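Exercise: predict the fold of this chain.
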Amino acid sequence: MKRILVNILTVLLFSTAFSSPVIVQAVVVSGLYEAEVPVSNQSASSRKKNMAAVLRVVLIKLTGDRYVPSRNGVTELLFDADQYVQQFEYRTREKAGGQQLYLWARFNSASLNKVLREAAIPAWGRERPSTLVWLAVSDASGRRFSGLSDDSGYVEKMEVQAKNRGIVLVHPLFDLEDTGQLQVSDIWGRFQDPVLAASRRYNANVVLTGRLEAISPELWEAHWVAYVDENAFTWVTQGNLAETVIIEGVDGLADTLAERYGQAGTYTQSGELEILVNDITDYNQYAKVLNYLESLNSVTRVEVKEVDQDSVIYLLTTQADASVISRAVGLGQTLEQISSSSYRLVQ
């Protein structure tokens, strides 16, 4: 199977179509410590290998790094996957041509987090950006938008891979308002303004456009653009199956988001980071900020360094740098950034 994934980063300033900031809330992703994989049988002899495959999916979801299974310190973890299982079961679901058996498992979160910390592998937090998807397709049926109701199942395949990568997709309604603002030709021509204008109503953190095309009977190609903050990231995927091209497209999105909002691919020892939080005037607010900072996955410890009349300096022990903390906090609704190292409590 031919498989080509080209990552090309292009930085573009947003046009006035998206110049007014939209306050959005990040999505709290559930099920990060559980996953399932298709299996052929329920034998005890194959369970160890299959359990390692389930854990591979979980580790990729947790870190945002699809190459994490090959990192130092992870190989042993996969070999002993059974030791970290909290619960597992076999499930059967209908699939084209018959039934498919799956092995589902949930792993102990405290144990996995401890192993990742000891290996200096940062985890991506549960608060993650939501992504609005506009997928346009060109095949034997012509050019069209593809949504959840499309018989092709392209968007459903995107959903499955997004779940495997721990990211959340939002899908357009394709009602009169959408079709009045955005045409398939806008996606094909990579016209940024109508895409962002039509996307504003959905309040998603990220907008993704995909242009999927059958180049020949044996070659599919997709061009992807992800609008993130004030940047546009582009990549191309190719393969002999549309499903392969779509799955790799979602992988490209997850890689981009994890690198920007998490710390995927960055492996450092813990360091200390000071942040000043203003507008804290009582104990409840003090505790709220403390608990919030402790909930950030890249933060392993939070101490109070200094307390003033209406502000507190917190000392964070973290594997992330200031920019990663800033982007993680920006996804939530607890703190608002004022400068590189100071924030205010959102009342």
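Check your answer against the key: The two ends are 54 Å apart (CA to CA).
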